Amino acid sequence: GSFFAQLRYVRGGNAFGASVAGSMSAHYLNPVVPDNYTNRGTAGDFSINYEREPTQNDRLSVSFRHEISRFEIPNELVQEQAGQLQTGGNFESIGTIRYQHIISPDSLVAFAGMVRDNANDLGSNLDSTPIIATQHNGFREGYFKSAYSLHHKTQELKGGVEADIALLHENFSYSITDSTRFDAGTPVSPSPFLASGLDIEPSAFIEDLVRIGKWTVSAGLRWDHYQLLLNQGAFSPRISIGRSLPSLNMVLHASFDHVFQTPSFENILVTISQWINQINPSVLHLPVQPSKGNYYEGGLTQAFRKQMSVDANFYRRDMGNFADDNQLLNTGLSYPVAFEKSVIYGAEAKLSLVRLGKLSGYASYSYMVGNAWFPVTGGLFLGHDALAALSQTKGHFPNSQDQRNTLRMRLQYQAASRIWFGCGATYGSGLPFA
């Protein structure tokens, strides 16, 4: 169940808004284990925002939002029989400010800032098995962006800088209640892990959109820097080209993107800490590398009079150091990992019925194949798991995006000026679950 309420008040050049929402679920659609015995969760949020236009060329907006979620961690059968109850929670407060100034009819400058405070908790009762795990993690983040846009003849130029800084705090502890599930010699109840770290990620970008006759070209270059466990930077170029063929009612397009993706910082400090050595001297200490990859895409749009159009696209994504995560048993705690590479490719098509009499709608189909290759780095691999990760250096497996067939459709019939009927359907062949 869910609810939502919203209020908006406008007077002169000022606008004020507020909203409140909440939801409750008794069945997770993506549990961490197939046995889904404890599966209740609640979520709620409250937000307020204020907008003002001091002049015709200036716009200011300020917003604040607070979100909270509490949920149970799904049990396995043996845990349910033992009376285990593990609960998680996430609490976040975020404030944003945006300012835009129109310099001239062809140019403007924009600024944006954000501060965020986030906390993640995990609690376990005394009947938890094979481990009583407790976590109190959090981070405080600050973000700033400045961008300048210019329209000049057939060009649309844009450039800017960004900076994202996060102060991380990790607090994790456990007590083993079933030692048969762990390597011999693993401490039953070690001292808690406490650590802090600073994640610094500045970046800059420039891009241009050019329209020349029947051609449209968009190109850009981005620079990113990552400093947490590693100190790395990369340039990411991209280009997209489109060609209109009016005589055929067709548009052809192709694009290339080079991407640089920084690792998730959730529980990342514990994975490379010396605290792990007291848990098990056989540990895999390999920091997660940023992901780098190339995206390729090509396709067309074909219109049939004014009633119907077809979109078809083909794509391929090659990623090095493919980002993923691994779980600590079924506690819901995840640790960032990276596989050597991943290749994702596929095709998609969409038939859109703009209007055929009183009927409108669409039907789409996509085919996707995704695989990731060993070896793996990062994560929390101890004892036999560390040896298995080190020995598994070849082979591949379907990644979590590998859904081979997806079909969606929707139709709408306008029976009268104020009455319409609609129906829809969705089919997915399924995702890997292991």
Write structural notes for this entry.
By secondary structure, the chain is mainly beta. Helices cover 5% and strands 67% of the residues. The longest helix has 8 residues.
Query: Unreliable segments (pLDDT under 50, ≥5 consecutive)?
Result: none
Give the overall average pLDDT: 91
Helix content: under 10%
What multimeric state do the chains show?
Answer: single chain
Structural class by secondary-structure content: mainly beta
Please state roughly what percent of the residues sit in beta strands, choosing from under 5%, 5-15%, 15-25%, 25-35%, 35-45% or over 45%: over 45%
Biggest beta-sheet profile? 19 strands, antiparallel
Number of strands: 19
Order of helices and strands: EEEEHEEEEEEEEHHEEEEHEEE
Annotation field: number of helices? 4
The end-to-end span amounts to 29 Å
Radius of gyration: 26 Å
Which keywords apply here?
single chain; 434 residues; mainly beta; globular
Question: What's the short version?
Answer:
The chain has 434 residues and is mainly β. It is 5% helix and 67% strand. It has a 19-stranded antiparallel β-sheet that branches.
Question: Topology, please?
Answer:
Layout: E1 2-11, E2 14-25, E3 41-52, E4 58-72, H1 77-82, E5 86-104, E6 107-124, E7 131-152, E8 155-176, E9 193-212, E10 215-227, E11 231-245, E12 250-261, H2 268-271, H3 275-279, E13 291-304, E14 308-327, E15 334-356, E16 359-378, H4 384-391, E17 396-398, E18 405-416, E19 419-428
Antiparallel strand pairs: 1-2, 2-3, 3-4, 4-5, 5-6, 6-7, 7-8, 8-9, 9-10, 10-11, 11-12, 12-13, 13-14, 14-15, 15-16, 16-17, 16-18, 18-19
